[in-house]
Amino acid sequence: MLSRTHNSLDLGLIHVVSSVASIPFPNNRLELLRFRGFLGGLWTVGKLYRFATYTGATITAFATSPAAFNVTIQSQQHVLSVSVRERDLSLPGSNF
Hints:
The protein is an all-beta fold. Helix content is 0%, strand content 65%. It has a 5-stranded antiparallel beta sheet with strand order 4-3-2-1-8, with no helix packed on it.
């Protein structure tokens, strides 16, 4: 089962938030199925860029290690790539 995560980063004029979860979904026989869903956003200069399963965006790359993680999410119009290293986690405004 995929564990739920929530991460956010506030760098003043740029805010990034993301969440990944195993989503329960009933099928037409009322059996409970699950799929991996996510949502995320980039807020900058008064504009929100949404990246989510429900918008048709996809996670095109995802890698983790004890010291870092990288994720790339692609929507129809934009690509959001985030790389965080262990030393970045102590930045003011991070919530990892």
